[in-house]
Amino acid sequence: MEFTLEATSKNARACTIKTAHSTIKTPVFMPVGTLGSVKALDMEDVLDLLGAEIILANTYHMYLRPGDETVAKMGKLHGFTTYPKSFLTDSGGFQAFSLSDISKASENGIEFRSHIDGSKHFFTPKKVIDIQHNLGSDIMMILDDLVALPATGERIALSIERTTAWAKESIEYFRKKQKEGIGAEQNIFAIIQGGTDKAFRTKSATELCALDFDGFAIGGLSVGELNNEMYDTVEHTVKYMPKDKPRYLMGVGTPEDLIENIERGIDMFDCVMPTRNARNGTLFTSFGRLNIKGATYKEDAQPVDSECECLTCKRYSRAYLNHLFRSREIAYFRLATIHNLHYYLNLMREAREAILEDKYAEFKAEFYRKRG
Amino acid sequence: MEFTLEATSKNARACTIKTAHSTIKTPVFMPVGTLGSVKALDMEDVLDLLGAEIILANTYHMYLRPGDETVAKMGKLHGFTTYPKSFLTDSGGFQAFSLSDISKASENGIEFRSHIDGSKHFFTPKKVIDIQHNLGSDIMMILDDLVALPATGERIALSIERTTAWAKESIEYFRKKQKEGIGAEQNIFAIIQGGTDKAFRTKSATELCALDFDGFAIGGLSVGELNNEMYDTVEHTVKYMPKDKPRYLMGVGTPEDLIENIERGIDMFDCVMPTRNARNGTLFTSFGRLNIKGATYKEDAQPVDSECECLTCKRYSRAYLNHLFRSREIAYFRLATIHNLHYYLNLMREAREAILEDKYAEFKAEFYRKRG
After folding, report:
1. Of A259, A304, A361, B22, which is most buried by a Cβ count within 10 Å?
2. Where are the stretches annotated RNA binding (chains A, B)?
């Protein structure tokens, strides 16, 4: 991975990340393709309509179905899904923790039951790297020890200790495998934990950033804390992260969250919000959110967002989308998803332009002004 | 509507139908867009990926939701849906008859309750023309009196009598409105009834074809009768239909049904089969049907049909589609629908080529040979 920090506007950064499969310009929002499909879209949509240079897939989901060995046989993620740009895969730890009825973290890893058939599985730091080798993702994530909040300080301390130990095991195994020619073109990121406690975040960031990872993520946020707690935690944690490597804030967030965290020095984001909300009827626009099922749109001939250049806004009226939503037509899901992801990706392109011109503060002010 | 009979190959016909919105080359299969959306596709798919020159919408459904007056305000079907080519709308009689809990046909029309909210409605021959004026379809269908089979000869005779009476009322009203400038660019087809009884079909066809309709449909087939009964009924009925007007077989059918009925002189078809079966996992190919959920496709790197030029076959493997289907990914529905409709529309293009070369019998033999 080649990383170039091109410009800053105060703490906001415009970078370029070059993987074996694409050149990613940051700030970047990565659409979520849990099962190797960005929900409701096909890969031509992702490429031609959205121009996404990187998407996510979930290790937990692909491991269970169709199975990472099947994916490997079918040409890894790139061959199987036909998406030729970059994939980032999470470690599966979060899903093992949150989707499984039983999930037990021990010193060696996380035991869980499949949410599909109840079968028992055990994820270890090495095991999730093996799986991600099979998936062939451009950026893989380490297994981290997650804690259900609220938790005692003792439990959080244990989580950080374990995450650091697993990170050491992960990076040693990953680099050793690379020397053997396995995953030579892949990259690996560590995940900083510590909740909203600054001392814990300092400790976790300091320990992990001393290791030879290709990039670093901030995990464990956007789990119910106040927005300001999230922003403060990011602002604090970023200080302990290297300037010459990518910074990824996992599972965040609203357009406002993106704007705020870019200002605090984050380069990469992912979230199910634009895709999931699209399916539920919530569309993001330059003037705020719009719930397309509202009766007020029944005979509204305007596009969702007159400033938007997406297929949906260029072609269809709110009235037609309102009708498709109310009639539960499948076509609605794709059109709404295209719009929301286009909005997110375009917002990132505009943020980048502003950083390159060192006008991020003005850009942010204008972003909020339009929302009134 | 301009109708040109270009070529025949025995009884099979290649025609051109020119409406105010498109030039339709027959034999033609019309994708079903019940609610103004071909399920799982958007109109760019229908235009650019399928090249469809005519699609269906259902009067019953559009009347109930969003309402034909809303559609009229939003620019009729063409403006509302953005599909710029031809629309055919049925009369709503079939849905009023089949989707409603209560449905009573009387001398004057059909009373029914909405399947959405239970509200009471009454369709008359004039009322469904008024609705179709609001929808702005290029081809509208008359209200016909449907009979649940099996029925007594007496009831079928009454159905034919009523359908003829309603047809007379319809064509008078439609032409009168045209003189007033309403529906001047629209066309209207009558629907021949009579089950699989040849005497009844003769009577219905003779009576209706004496009237000034723009085309004629054969209704009341593909309702559970044997294939040969359907084919025999079509073969018989076609003899009483004019050569210089389009012939439309409603609600039919499988690829085999299309091939057989083209041979018997049918020009136009519609059916939910390619779209509905796609969603259920059944894909149509040049070598027969394929159920994509089968475990045998889990690691099958081939396209669905190696002879197919659709987006789905050019880009994706059976393995990926199998995975999307099994994972219930929304993207599956669109990719499968694109394939099945592409197959149907392409089959019609090939049939047309064969007719133009007067080689329909050879084409049909080859069609069956490939299926083994």
Report:
1. A304
2. 251-257, 275-279
CB contact under 8 A, A326 and B43: no
In a domain, B179, yes or no: yes
Among candidates A50, A45, A94, A55, which has minimal Cα distance to A77? A55
Give the nearest chain A residue to B70 (CA atoms): A299
Tell me whether 0.95 is exceeded by the ipTM.
yes
Task: Indicate whether A233 and A348 sit together in one domain.
Answer: no
Boundary (domain end) residue, out of B235, B270, B305: B270
CB distance from B324 to chain A under 8 Å? yes
- Give residue A303's pLDDT band: very low, low, confident or very high (50, 70, 90): very high
Q: pTM for the complete prediction? A: 0.97
**Residue among B299, B315, B332 with most chain A CBs within 10 A, to mutate:** B299
A72 within a domain of the structure (yes/no): yes
A60 lies in some domain: yes
Residue-level pLDDT at A205: 98
Distance between CA atoms of B28 and B17, rounded to whole angstroms? 10
A15 a known binding residue? no
Record: contact B331-A80, CB cut-off 8 A: no
Tell me if B230 sits within 8 A of B220, measured CB to CB. Answer: no
Report the number of distinct structural domains present in chain B. Answer: 2
pLDDT of residue B345: 98
Minimum Cα–Cα distance from B321: chain A residue: A81
Burial class (CB in 10 A: 0-12, 13-18, 19+), B328: exposed
* Average pLDDT of the segment spanning A339-365: 98
* A36–B316 C-beta distance less than 8 A: no
Place of tokens 């339009």: A370
- Which sequence positions of A are flagged as catalytic? 90, 270
**Hey, are the CB atoms on B334 and A329 less than 8 Å from each other?**
no
Q: For residue B56, what pLDDT is reported? A: 98
Element (H or E) spanning A13, and its range?
strand A12-18
Q: Are B322 and B335 in contact (CB under 8 A)?
A: no
Q: Helix B255-263 to helix B330-356 angle, to the nearest 10 degrees?
A: 20
At A266, list the tokens. 């984050």
To the nearest whole angstrom, how far is the Cα of B264 from the nearest Cα of chain A?
36
Of A93-102, A189-198, B244-253, B322-331, the one with minimum mean pLDDT is A93-102
Model pLDDT for residues B180-236, shown as the tens digit of each residue = 999 999 999 999 999 999 999 999 999 999 999 999 999 999 988 999 999 999 999
A265 and A198 in a common domain: yes
Q: Is B80 on the interface with A (CB under 8 A)?
A: yes
**Mean of pLDDT over chain A:** 96
Residues spanned by the domain of B28:
2-270
Same domain, B346 and B244: no
Q: Are residues A229 and A137 in the same domain?
A: yes
Question: Of the candidates B35, B311, B317, which has its C-beta nearest A74's C-beta?
Answer: B317
Would you place residue A372 in the very low, low, confident or very high pLDDT band (cuts 50, 70, 90)? confident
Residues of chain B with pLDDT under 50: none
| Domain match, A67 and A164 both | yes
- Whether residues A321 and A351 share a domain: the answer is yes
Q: Are residues A322 and A263 in the same domain?
A: no
CATH number, domain at A107? Answer: 3.20.20.105
Residue at which a domain ends, from A224, A239, A270: A270
User: What φ, ψ does residue B14 adopt, rounded to 5°?
Assistant: -115, 120
Task: Indicate whether B276 belongs to any domain.
Answer: no
Residues A363 and A297 in one domain: yes
For the segment A329-340, the average pLDDT, to the nearest whole number, is 98
What are the tens digits of pLDDT across the range A169-186?
999 999 999 999 999 999
Alpha carbons B2 and A244: distance in angstroms, whole number: 69
